[in-house]
């Protein structure tokens, strides 16, 4: 199990790189900035992270995929990045702990000699109150954000920068949906992440690059070292 967790951690880096260079994360950020309101962003993001992490069975997976996108959306909405990170981690950890697909949730009852669902039920006494308290606090924090004084030009600049540097296409959202579907079908988290990385790499070749040697080098570098760019927009470059 320790080896599997280590492999998942390494795979997560590949997923992040492939999903950014392919335009998947930029597409999520682009549409997220168009749709989400600052006042409901923290609550909605928290709930989404809970659900995704539950079905995937891995907090690392949720944080590495949608978590990265939510950080970008939060920056665009002018929300404290520490608060956004707390929202992402809180939702991801809750979903992971309560998921029957999670490796640690399976490991604990196996070592203790009990049933996994009894183990999950026993955790409800502490995790559900924490969930409710967190949701209330994120709701309060959301309504404390003064969206009327927000500089909407910042959001426009981020979306303009994203559309100038990436091919923003809703078809790209199929890749994360496929990854989530594989997890729901009880595919091991490691295999689901690997397939997500492969799909992201294929999407990068199709949507962002024309098969040139330079494009191939950019994709391969993103898989191993992460993706970086110098667009002139600090919020986008922090991806």
Question: What would you say about this model in short?
Answer:
With 239 residues, the protein is mostly helical. It has helices at 2-21, 24-35, 38-56, 59-77, 81-98, 103-112, 116-143, 152-165, 174-184, 189-208, 213-225, 234-237.
Biggest sheet record: none
Structural class: mainly alpha
Kindly provide the radius of gyration, computed on alpha-carbon positions and rounded to a whole number of angstroms. Answer: 18 Å
Mean pLDDT: 81
N to C succession of SSEs: HHHHHHHHHHHH
Cα(first) to Cα(last) distance is 31 Å
> Please, how many helices?
12
Care to describe what's here?
- The protein has 239 residues and is an all-alpha fold.
- It has 12 helices and no strands.
- The mean pLDDT is 81.
Q: How would the blueprint of this fold be written?
A:
Blueprint: H1 2-21, H2 24-35, H3 38-56, H4 59-77, H5 81-98, H6 103-112, H7 116-143, H8 152-165, H9 174-184, H10 189-208, H11 213-225, H12 234-237
Key words describing this protein structure:
mainly alpha; 0% strand
């Amino acid at each position: 199990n320790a080896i599997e967790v280590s492999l998942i951690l390494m795979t997560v880096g590949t997923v992040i790189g492939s999903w950014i260079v392919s335009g998947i994360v930029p597409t999520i950020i682009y549409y997220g900035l168009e749709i989400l309101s600052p006042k409901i962003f923290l609550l909605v993001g928290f709930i989404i992270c809970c659900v995704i992490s539950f079905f995937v069975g891995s907090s690392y997976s949720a944080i590495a995929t949608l978590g990265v996108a939510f950080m970008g959306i939060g920056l665009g909405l002018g929300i404290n990045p520490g608060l956004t990170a707390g929202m992402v981690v809180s939702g991801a950890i809750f979903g992971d702990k309560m998921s029957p697909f999670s490796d640690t949730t399976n490991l604990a009852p196996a070592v203790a000699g009990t049933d996994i669902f009894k183990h999950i039920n026993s955790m409800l006494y502490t995790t559900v109150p924490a969930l409710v308290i967190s949701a209330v606090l994120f709701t309060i924090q959301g309504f404390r954000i003064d969206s009327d004084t927000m500089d909407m030009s910042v959001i426009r600049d981020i979306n303009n920068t994203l559309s100038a540097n990436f091919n923003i296409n809703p078809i790209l959202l199929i890749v994360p949906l496929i990854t989530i579907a594989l997890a729901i079908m009880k595919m091991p988290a490691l295999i689901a992440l690997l397939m997500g990385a492969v799909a992201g790499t294929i999407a990068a070749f199709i949507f962002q690059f024309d098969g040139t040697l330079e494009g191939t080098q950019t994709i391969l570098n993103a898989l191993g070292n992460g993706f970086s760019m110098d667009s002139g927009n600090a919020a986008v470059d922090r991806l």
